[in-house]
Amino acid sequence: MNWVTGALKLFPVIIAAVTAVERMVTAKKGKEKQDEAIAMIGDLVPLIEGSIGRDVVNEAEVQSAIRKVIDAVVALQNVVRDLVARRATVAGR
What is the DSSP string of 44-68? Predict the structure, then answer.
């Protein structure tokens, strides 16, 4: 179960990395931004890996899963942004 705890600790790190990249890296798009987030996560993860006792971020399957989580976080942010914009437009009528 130790790996589950470690995996769950990755979620806030992923969300923080996506948020930071969205704010700081405006010139890049898509995979380039995702690569920036992956690099940031890689810098933050040693603490998590220490708590589960193994190197997980450099495993290909974990990298793939992290990229999918990043895609999901960005998709959710985009949906929320669009909904808020639509509601603001409707309220302004």
Answer: HTHHHHHHHTS--TTSHHHHHHHHH
At residue 74 the predicted structure's pLDDT band, cuts being 50, 70 and 90, is: very high
> Over the range 45-63, which residues count as b (16 or more CB within 10 Å of their CB) and which as e?
beebbeeeeeebbeeeeee
Check residue 27 and report its DSSP letter.
S
Is residue 56 within 8 Å of 9, Cβ to Cβ? no
CA atoms within 13 A on the CB side of 49: 13
Max CA pair span of the chain: 57
Phi, psi of 55 (to 5 degrees): -85, 110
* Contact predicate 70/13, CB 8 Å: no
C-alpha count within 13 angstroms, C-beta hemisphere, residue 5:
10
The mean pLDDT of 45-65, rounded to a whole number, is 74
DSSP class of residue 92? T
